[in-house]
Design a protein that fits this description.
Blueprint: H1 2-55
């Protein structure tokens, strides 16, 4: 009888672990996208500066 009362607790822990992993993954993905956007913005700025120098 004790084993059967353990399964719901185990399942609840599993659901919480999946939920926590999903949140962690979403936050990590957003952080990586922000870093990528910063790098792309720097590249864009440098290309604009170079094109302005080439026009002169």
């Amino acid at each position: 009888m004790g084993v059967f009362s353990f399964f719901p607790i185990l399942m609840m822990f599993l659901y919480l672990a999946v939920f926590g992993f999903s949140i962690w993954f979403a936050v990590s993905l957003i952080k990586a996208q922000r870093e990528r956007n910063v790098i792309l913005k720097e590249i864009s700025t440098r290309l604009e500066q170079k094109s302005e120098k080439d026009e002169l």
